[in-house]
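Bit of a strange request maybe. I'm writing a small parser for C-alpha cell strings and I need a real example to test against, not something I typed by hand. Could someone generate the C-alpha cells for this chain?
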Amino acid sequence: MTTDTSVLYFIFNREYWFKNYNFALKSAGPEVEALHRKFGTVFDIKRYALHDGPGIRVTVHFKGCPLSCWWCHNPESQYFGPQLLYRRERCVACGMCAPACPKGAISTEGGAMSTDSGVCDGCGACSEVCPSEARVTCGARMSASEVMKSILKERIFFEQSGGGVTLSGGEPMAQPEFVMELLGECRKHGIHTALDTCGFVDAESLLDTVPFTDLYLYDIKHMDPEKHKKYTGVDNDVILSNLSQLGGRGAVINVRVPFVPGVNTDEENLRATAAFVSGVRGVVGLNLLPYHSAAEDKHDRWSMEFRLRGTCAPAEASLRRAVEVMESQGIRAITGG
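Reply from user aminoacidic:
Good idea to test on real output. This should exercise your parser:
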C-alpha cells in the first residue's frame, strides 16, 4: 500500500510524532489544520458497552495510537488514519474487487486475489463491493455532529442505567481538539463522560479535558521505563507525570493495568505499581485486565505480526496475589473491566 512518506515517518517515530503533533498541523497550512480539527478519525462506535465505565455506554473508538503494545487487543487502531485491511480466509475469489479498484492494484493469481501494495492507495473502493467482507476499510473521518447523532440514539439506556459515553482508542487524545468538541457536546446534553487513555499525550491538552470528563480510565502498562519502552515503544515518564497531574487537578481516576504473563505480572512490578498509584490523588479504584487470546486472534485476522504468540491467560492464583498487593497499599482492586 502506498502511503505518504510523512505518515510513515510518524508511524515509525511515535515519540517524535507525539512531541510535534501541533507543529506538524500548523506546518501543513491553515486549511489542512482547520479540516483536521473539525473532523476526527473513528474506527468503531460500540453500542451497549458494559466494561468501559459505569452503566450501559457508547464507546467511541478513535483511530491512531502513539503506543504499539505487544498485547494490543485492537491492533487495527494503531495506524493514524483510515486503512484497508484484508482477511484472506474470508475471500471467495469472486473477483468483484478487481474492476472496482481505480488503481488496478488487484489481480487474480492461482485462483486467489492478490493486491499490489506498491499501487494500492487504500481508497477502500474494493471493500465497498466485497460480498464476503474480506476487504474492510478500517476508520472513517467523521464530524462531531455525526458522532453525537449515534450517541444520542442510545440516550434512553444511559438514563436508565447510569451510563454514558466513553472515548477510547487507539488513543483519543491523539486527536485532542476533536475530543474536546465531543466532550463539550456531551456536557451540553448532560451525558456522563469517560476518557480512556494510555497517558502518553500532551499534558496541557489532557488537563484541558478535566472540566468536561467525569471519569478517567488510565492505563499503567509497566513501572520500569526500559521494559515499558520494550513492550510499548515508548518509556513511561510522560505517562506517570500526566497521571499525577490529573490527580492534582481533582480528576476522578480508575487505573487499569493489563495483566500480561511474562511482561508485568512479577512481584517487583506489582509492588512498584501499587506504591505509585497509592500516592496519586483521585484514584477510586484499579482494574487488573487479564490477557486473553483475542489479541493473538486479531493480529492473525489482519495478517499483523504478533510478538506474544503462545502466551496464556494468567492463572487465577497470580490474579489473586496481584489484588492482594494492591489492597495492601489501600487500593480498591478488582479483576476484569
